[in-house]
Specification:
The complex is a heterodimer of chains A (about 500) and B (about 100). Chain A has about 500 residues and is α/β, with parallel strands linked by helices. Chain A has 15 helices and eleven strands. In chain A, strands 1-3-2-4-6-5-10-11-9-7-8 form an eleven-stranded mixed beta sheet, sandwiched between helices. In chain A, strand 2, helix 4 (about 110-115) and strand 3 (about 120-125) form a beta-alpha-beta unit. In chain A, about 60% of the residues are buried. By secondary structure, chain B is mostly helical. Chain B has a domain at about 5-40. In chain B, about 30% of the residues lie in helices and about 5% in strands. In chain B, a hairpin with a 2-residue loop joins strand 1 and strand 2. The model of chain B has no long low-confidence stretch (mean pLDDT about 95). Chains A and B meet through helix 9, helix 10, helix 11, helix 12 and helix 13 of A and helix 1 and helix 2 of B.
Chain lengths: ~500, ~100
């Protein structure tokens, strides 16, 4: 590897694509730069299963394609893959003890598409167990650590969750980009906490096949990247109809990168008044105001809007998501894969189920499975689950009315605060942790695309992001709005390397 | 709605998660706290609103009712904690 290329792990996908096509670097050298950075980054606990042999084999294949002139955009691009994605022959545990040792015999649709496009898998990334968490503290692998610190304070901070390993890895330049998944904010919140870009596409845009299910009506996979352009390139390669996912939309995928014109003149940006919450730090409000001014300066029309059912999104989410999780996680019974408890003499199959699940699931997962079981149980189904689904319909209608009135996208804060310290929420009520999702869950409930863009730093030097919410299936427009915001914000800060 | 210890025990059993008797009071408190948070939903007027079934208005796709997969017994059993003679093995279920 030649010296000037040794920092190739810091490149964007767009820059790497150009360098690869021009032959200025090989996919193998680019991959080596990332593998070196990953080994030096063990202190972040982002990569939990490294796959250097697979990476180098894929990189050599990518170099052959590049040499033959057959090079899609993602050809030779080294990626991290969230542990929630099933990858053939490679541990895929959803960061859970109950799936320890599980090596899928199949490949998820998303990773299949990425590999078909020539992308390189560097390894599997840390996350909250079964994607249930907002701080990566529920992982069986231990905490992922943010590369960011509060100035000279060495307190270890959360990279957010559930896609915490993905966020830490991209922010620390261990890979060019990573896959994430988002059920209530799990791409957008960690992206905001680590100063990167993360987009949750419209529900149905990306196949869920082969991704360990949490809440099937809310889960969507998406890219976590260093720039908006990279998000467009990456999403293009992930998206598209898949007959193996019955909720996958049979719609053409437009050219997302071509949508990045930088022109949003005349577009109407909605500012929802219900997102102005009491007790939100002044810095978050100020950031939001700056974002509004940036979009106005770019020629957009700023419109105050109302999404009246916003305050009921979190309670509705915390009925619906655990209900679906309790059903989805019923499959972990110690019979077909993963952990099985050791039984004592005389113990039967029910003991096997109960002990297996008590040993295999962590506390937060157990809590959510039990809440879900309760709200679905006879006598409470109507009071909780059906009521939450009705409220969900109202939340979706709020957005539909705003879009019908001509709103093109909606600007909100991404998170109610900057990243907090690992362990700082340990004594908090579970509900306090759930508040992290206050600005993001509405988007999952309504099935809309949402993107988090880094816009500034707080007084302690930590990244803060804003969220843009788009019309269904209009990820191209949404990415273009985000591109304008990104250019105006000019966020270029990187964490100072301590790891 | 608050969850008492008996209800917590019942929910844990329904969820097939073993919870030690000593841990039930704390579990009941935690579940009650979360349910208390959900009570806010009772403030919403949902008269005449249908519960959402699908977030995108689409019909589920159909396909011909034919076999599309199979003959992969080895792969199916590959990750089983206990597989014998082509089957998943479990503790005796019927006396």
């Amino acid at each position: 590897m030649s010296a000037p290329m040794s920092n190739a792990n810091t490149w964007t996908i767009a820059a790497a694509r150009e360098a690869l096509r021009k032959g200025e670097i090989s996919a193998v050298d680019l991959t080596m730069a990332c593998l070196t950075a990953i080994d030096a980054g063990d202190g972040l606990n982002a990569f939990v299963h490294k796959t250097p042999e697979i990476a180098l084999e894929q990189a050599r294949a990518a170099d052959a394609r590049l040499a033959a002139g057959d090079a899609p955009s993602m050809c030779g691009i080294p990626l991290g893959i969230k542990d929630l994605f099933c990858t053939k022959g490679v541990p895929s545990q959803a960061a859970s003890n109950i799936l320890r040792g599980f090596r899928p015999e199949y490949e998820s649709t998303v990773t299949t598409r990425l590999f078909d496009a020539g992308a390189v898998m560097l390894g599997k990334l840390n996350m909250d167990e079964f994607a249930m968490g907002s701080s990566n503290e529920t992982s069986t692998y231990g905490n992922a650590v943010s590369p960011w610190r509060r100035g000279n304070d060495t307190t270890a901070l959360t990279p957010g969750g559930s896609s915490g390993g993905s966020a830490a890895a991209v922010a620390a330049d261990l890979c060019l980009a990573a896959t994430g998944t988002d059920t209530g904010g799990s791409i957008r919140q960690p992206a905001a906490f680590t100063g990167i870009v993360g987009i949750k596409p419209t529900y149905g845009r990306v196949s869920r096949w082969g991704i360990v299910a949490f809440a099937s009506s809310l889960d969507q996979a998406g890219p976590m990247t260093k720039t908006v352009r990279d998000a467009a390139i990456f999403l293009q390669a992930m998206a598209g109809h898949d007959p193996k996912d019955s909720t996958s939309a049979d719609l053409p995928v437009p050219d997302f990168e071509a949508a990045l014109t930088g022109d949003i003149r005349g577009k109407k940006i909605g500012i929802p008044r219900e997102y102005r919450l009491d007790g939100i730090p002044a810095e978050i409000d100020a950031l939001w105001q700056r974002g509004i001014e940036m979009l106005r300066d770019a020629g957009a029309e700023i419109v105050d809007i109302s999404l009246p059912h916003t305050k009921y999104a979190l309670p509705a989410y915390y009925v619906i998501a655990p209900a679906e999780a309790s059903s989805n996680l019923a499959r972990y019974d110690g019979v077909r894969y993963g952990h099985r408890a050791t039984l004592s003499a005389g113990e039967g199959i029910v003991d096997m189920y109960e002990k297996t699940r008590a040993e295999g699931f962590g506390k937060e997962v157990q809590r959510r499975v039990m809440i879900g079981t309760y709200v679905l149980s006879a006598g409470f189904y109507d009071a909780y689950y059906n009521r939450a689904r009705k409220v969900r319909a109202l939340i979706k209608r709020d957005f539909e009315l705003a879009f019908a009135a001509g709103i093109d996208s909606i600007l909100t804060p991404a998170t109610p605060s900057a990243a907090f310290g690992l362990g700082e929420m340990a004594s908090a009520d579970p509900v306090e942790m759930y508040l992290n999702d206050v600005f993001t869950v509405t988007v999952n409930l309504a099935g809309l695309p949402g993107i988090s863009v880094p816009v500034g730093l707080d007084a302690k030097g930590l990244p803060l992001g804003l969220q843009l919410i788009g019309r269904p299936w209009e990820e191209g427009d949404l990415l273009n709005h985000a591109y304008v915001l990104e250019r105006a914000a000019g966020f270029v800060s990187k964490p100072a390397k301590w790891w | 709605m608050s969850i008492d210890i008996d209800t917590a025990r019942k929910v844990a059993h329904l969820a097939r998660i073993r919870v030690q008797e000593d841990d039930l009071p704390a579990l009941a408190r935690e579940l009650s706290g979360i349910l208390g948070f959900m009570e806010q939903l009772n403030e919403v007027d949902v008269t005449g609103i249908e519960p959402m079934v699908s977030v995108t208005p689409m019909r589920l796709a159909r396909r011909a009712d034919v076999v599309t997969d199979g003959n992969i017994q080895e792969q199916v059993l590959k990750n089983a904690p206990d597989a014998r003679e082509g089957f998943f093995a479990v503790p005796k279920v019927v006396e």
